[in-house]
Automatic annotation (TrEMBL):
This is Uncharacterized protein. Keywords: Membrane, Transmembrane, Transmembrane helix. It comes from the Bacteria. It comes from Algoriphagus yeomjeoni. The keyword Membrane applies. The chain crosses the membrane at residues 7-27, 33-50, 62-83, 89-107, 119-138, 158-180, 192-219, 231-252, 332-354, 366-392. Signal peptide: none annotated.
Length: 407
């Protein structure tokens, strides 16, 4: 029976890490029906596997904070406004939290197996994302109709985003999974294969944030494999770098020929840095980002500072009162609008997470997460965020017996 539960847990983990419930129309069901069903199943298993040790986990404390504050502000705002509720983010928090509670309870007596399961998730999700990305690239109109119920003709720019919908969220998730895989897996050569596939997908996403995250990971890899005392490069790093530069040279040399022979509507990182149209779009995106931050600071002021809308009424309040096109592209400001002055508690927990990452000597993982919090609107409600905090919780609780500290 437990073996069946392990399989169910693994499959739901793939749905969570890859947002795969967006493909529900393929089996004739709506996304909402599938999502609610998955949440209910996950909740049921989490209750049956609940462990009191979870109370010490920071991902659980953060989630409970989001849930409690959202419900309190929901009832307060309900009394004086006509905003329309949206429970999407709250449902996601409950789903991710219950899943990791269930996962921990399932593996708590054999944490090594849990780290192995995380590796299997990350490899599987990479394979799935590659398949989804190819589908998105070659059948973009069909993909948009399936995922978003929106078919756009005569596309001028196609950026890989898959079921993450947003290209930056897509790139952030891939970079995070890459780092966790590198730090957890013992397969030295395949780490660089994983790196190359991730680099390709992030390039196709056109995400400048993704490029920053990749550079951070690459620098960390080089420093981790370089012996400063003897000034020698680890042989695995030397071999991997040779492969990376060889393949990158091949990609660059064929980039122009590829784009001239095939009608290519993709907006890659190369386009955004070296193509005039791509640079124009990138500049416009930066301007919109700055405007969103200004709108966010305006939205957080006044009465909102003391009686904020919470996660449930945030979207309606933004559309009704602020009327800005974009939500603030900074998760800290986003939370400030949602929770007002009370944002100090989740921010404090983030500081504790940072301290733990330093203790575990994997502060780079927190840095990757922090960049996403700085550059994405609601990254604290992504499965990537919960995976990172859960992973750090696991490492901290089992600091003497984790793959990270055995390196």
């Amino acid at each position: 029976m437990k073996q069946i539960e392990l399989i169910i847990n693994f499959l739901i983990g793939l749905f969570i890490l890859g947002n795969l419930y967006y493909f529900s129309p393929l089996i004739g069901l709506s996304k909402d029906v599938v999502l609610v069903s998955l949440v209910l199943v996950t909740l049921l298993f989490s209750f049956s596997r609940f462990s009191s040790k979870i109370y010490n986990f920071l991902f659980f404390k953060l989630a409970i904070s989001f849930i409690i504050m959202s419900l309190i502000f929901f009832f307060l705002t309900f009394l004086y406004s006509n905003y329309s509720p949206n429970f999407n983010n709250l449902i996601r928090v409950i789903w991710y939290t219950s899943f990791f509670v269930w996962t921990y309870g399932l593996y708590q007596h054999n944490i090594v197996l849990l780290f192995d399961s995380i590796i299997k998730w990350l490899v599987s999700i990479l394979v799935v994302i590659i398949g989804i990305s190819l589908f998105e690239y070659y059948n973009n109109n069909l993909f948009s109709q399936l995922i978003m119920n929106d078919s756009t003709e005569n596309l001028t720019n196609v950026r890989f985003a898959g079921t993450y919908i947003d290209a930056n969220s897509f790139a952030g998730a891939l970079a995070t999974y890459l780092f966790i895989y590198i730090r957890t897996s013992r397969e030295k050569v395949f780490k660089w294969v994983y790196f190359l596939f991730t680099a390709y997908l992030i390039n196709q996403s056109g995400s400048r944030m993704g490029l920053i995250l990749l550079i951070i990971i690459l620098v960390d890899l080089i420093l981790d494999n370089f012996d400063f005392k003897s000034l020698l490069i680890n042989k695995h790093l030397f071999t991997a770098l040779f492969i990376v530069f060889f393949l990158m040279s091949a990609v660059l040399s064929n980039q122009i020929e590829f784009e001239t022979n095939i009608q290519d509507n993709s907006e890659t990182l190369f386009n955004r840095f070296f193509d005039d149209l791509g640079k124009t779009r990138a500049e416009a995106s930066s301007n919109e980002r700055m405007e969103s931050l200004k709108s966010g600071l305006v939205a957080a002021s006044g009465r909102n500072f003391i009686i904020p809308p919470g996660a449930i009424y945030f979207e309606s309040k933004w559309k009704t009162d602020i009327k800005a096109r974009h939500y603030p592209h900074n998760s800290i400001i986003f939370m400030f609008v949602e929770y007002g002055i009370y944002v100090i508690w989740p921010v404090y927990l983030l500081f504790v997470i940072w301290k733990r990452s330093k203790f575990l000597k994997i502060k780079v993982l927190f840095i990757l997460l922090f960049f996403q919090l700085l550059l994405l609107p609601n990254a604290m409600y992504y499965s990537t965020f919960f995976l990172v905090v859960f992973y750090l919780d696991l490492c901290y609780e089992n600091c003497r017996n984790t793959p990270v500290l055995k390196r």
